């Protein structure tokens, strides 16, 4: 991967296999032409590096740049957009304040109304599972309507909201298979399906998209752990 | 500044609910920036207005900022929008300058994190009597969150340093809810997060904050009302 200018200091990204959140950051870095080095964590055995740089959440991704740590994937994406901005690199968030606000709104909607219940619907049981599935499907419908006539959420080019939604493009299909929970039935959400295909075929995205089979094996191996964690989380609600 | 005569093309209207801390974030930001706006109280416990439903069809929630008729939803998106759409406002920017992307990233991180105070706090009063374990977990979480915020504040006057900034605006509306959380959760902010407690007292002296927030007694009354509405305890 070439870049017009070498950034002043090397950029490291603490990641873990299969993380859609880390994927968002990798795409952002690639879009901006920023070379980076991956530090791959085993989340069952977190390193001192990770705990020192993200003491609050102890999660990936964490971006290390000039010795400083940036945490939370969409915060990191905005940081990358600003810190590595060049006239020649694409904008991840649009320039116009109103469109930026709209993009932030949809990223928040995707995180809270779609991805969160989606994950819970995969691993929960009984009435709670049905409730999460209903909520997710309703949100998928809203997103499908948003994509009407658009190639990406961002318009003609991939942007902030597409990165926020990336989980739906690759991870959702794999989870549906492994968990045996079908949220997107054949023929449902045609615009979203079309967007997912566009997303995973994108030249930049492909470089950091995990392989479908490897992802499936990874989720399958962790199924029971997800189920027990979600059971706990549901009890706390 | 609410109610001042405005030009239609720059007109700001805030759809809000009196006790909403998310709405208060916007009120405080508008006041700090010296931006005139029309405050529009929404009836959330009754039938929602057509204007609210049209402006925020996805969530049907407040706050919504209407700028020349265009809606901006989600309180943190509204705060960023106020900075970006009104760079020449009388008051300072909420976010650090564009010359310091790292400081901006830190501010965004902690502003988003401040939501956890409300999330954990809500679980404390919303859980029914029998859910002891879940209550203990909510208590542990709010204590941890307040501790983290206390550490991040450190010895600074505000989270923004000398500037009353994004994180301060995002967090301060939860302050009147803390006495209720303390009671439901049986913990003390003074003990758990003494620097944060002092920060809260400093913020209360700011005009924008004093005018926008309601006293803890009013918030507590509201929580009691909600518990009735939800049929809790």
Automatic annotation (TrEMBL), chain A:
The keyword Transferase is assigned to this record: yes
Annotated Gene Ontology cellular component terms: cytoplasm
CDD domains xref list: GST_C_Tau (cd03185), GST_N_Tau (cd03058)
Gene3D superfamilies membership: 1.20.1050.10, Glutaredoxin (3.40.30.10)
Any one GO molecular-function label of the UniProt entry: glutathione transferase activity
GO biological process: glutathione metabolic process
InterPro entries per UniProt: Glutathione-S-Trfase_C-like, Glutathione-S-Trfase_C_sf, Glutathione_S-Trfase, Glutathione_S-Trfase_N, GST_C, GST_C_Tau, Omega/Tau-like, Thioredoxin-like_sf
Record carries keyword Transferase: yes
Location of the GST N-terminal domain: 9-88
Enzyme class: transferase
Annotated EC: 2.5.1.18
Keywords (A to Z) from UniProt: Transferase
Residue span, GST C-terminal domain: 96-219
Reaction catalysis annotation: RX + glutathione = an S-substituted glutathione + a halide anion + H(+)
Stated name of the protein: glutathione transferase
Automatic annotation (TrEMBL), chain B:
Domain GST C-terminal, chain residue ranges per copy: 100-222
Subcellular location: Cytoplasm, Cytosol
Superkingdom field: Eukaryota
The enzyme's E.C. designation: 2.5.1.18
InterPro entries for this protein: Glutathione-S-Trfase_C-like (IPR010987), Glutathione-S-Trfase_C_sf (IPR036282), Glutathione_S-Trfase (IPR040079), Glutathione_S-Trfase_N (IPR004045), GST_C_Tau (IPR045074), Omega/Tau-like (IPR045073), Thioredoxin-like_sf (IPR036249)
Keywords recorded for this protein, A-Z: Cytoplasm, Transferase
GO molecular function annotation: glutathione transferase activity
Listed GO CC annotations: cytosol
Domain GST N-terminal: 10-90
Catalytic reactions on record: RX + glutathione = an S-substituted glutathione + a halide anion + H(+)
GO process terms (BP): glutathione metabolic process
SUPFAM superfamilies registered for this protein in UniProt: GST C-terminal domain-like (SSF47616), Thioredoxin-like (SSF52833)
PROSITE patterns: GST_CTER, GST_NTER
Family: Belongs to the GST superfamily.
Known role: Is involved in the conjugation of reduced glutathione to a wide number of exogenous and endogenous hydrophobic electrophiles.
This protein's name: Glutathione S-transferase
